[in-house]
């Protein structure tokens, strides 16, 4: 307990000191809870980052598949153009044969 040396100093009751001590420890427990929440948030961000990396990888694979599909469609288009030319030539030949008959 505090003992005053002169009249300008006053005695603080011990109950006030206990209350003051409780007031000081309350923010400490709040900070501990906040720290725990921040650790959980950080863990969630790490998981989200991993998920985004996996999604990015999946999108890269999809892009590659779409590029291959585009190449296949270009080849199919070329094949259809050639078939169309062949059919046109065949049609002309048939018309020529028909006109001879």
Write the layout of secondary structure elements.
Elements: H1 14-100
3D architecture notes:
The chain is mainly α and 101 residues long. It is 86% helix and 0% strand. The protein has one helix and no strands. It has one helix at 14-100. The mean pLDDT is 87.
What is the compact description of this entry?
The protein contains one helix and no strands. The protein is mainly alpha-helical and 101 residues long.
The structural class is mainly alpha
- The average pLDDT value, as a whole number, equals 87
> Percentage of helical residues?
over 70%
Task: Give the C-alpha Rg.
Answer: 42 Å
Order of helices and strands: H
- What general form does the structure show? rod-shaped
Distance linking N and C termini: 131 Å
Report the uncertain regions.
Answer: none
How many helix segments?
A: 1
Main sheet record: none
**What is the beta-strand fraction?**
under 5%
Number of DSSP E strands: 0
Main traits of this protein?
0% strand; single chain; mainly alpha; 101 residues
